[in-house]
Structure prediction request, 236 residues.
Amino acid sequence: MVKEFFFEQRHHLFTALVAECQDVLSEAISKHGAATLLVSGGGTPAPLYEALSKTELNWKKIKIALVDERWVDQDHAASNEALIRRTLLINNAKTAEFTGMKTAAKTATAGQGETEALYRKLPQPFSLAIVGMGPDGHTASLFPHAKGLAGALNTDNDNLTAAISANQTEVTGPNTERLTLTLPALLKTDRVIILFTGEDKLAVFSAAQQPGPIEDMPIRALLHQEQVPVELYWAP
Prediction:
């Protein structure tokens, strides 16, 4: 069951979500001595990151890592790492340790092993993952019927990361080659928060809550499991 938190105004959403993130990360530090925050790109979470960066968390004990990444260099406009460095790894949060996904390898498939090794050094269970959802029902870079999707969803596979090649450029744009957290990695997280806005996506989310093939709407893999608590934060 997904807990749903609806807000009339986006600034109310972000105020509540910053407080929730603080609580989860502080609890993880108290319990384990460290916390791991997994973050997504996109314009929607930027205000969350900027507000979170100003909080009085013990950032030296928080490790930040990406949920997914386009296989582009950090100076590319589509780089999630660049977004995180610009919006989150500033102010108080600049002392947090960051793990990116993009390597010097030419392809995501070639770079996956190196990134996998880096992610295996992060403390588990991961404390908190902030994910979004696309209009096609994808989350992270788990795109419907993408090349690599089956392996990334396979819960018998212990890999934390997977190379994905999406086939729907109307959703992904030209950067279809990605590296993403796998479903098993997301299920190694104490709390998953799904963040998106707008009535159109809320309709997609409602459709994903209905039974149906995961390959058609991969976010169903998170919505129809009982291993990890999932919360939705939404505003118009």
Remarks:
- The chain has a mean pLDDT of 96.
- The radius of gyration is 16 Å.
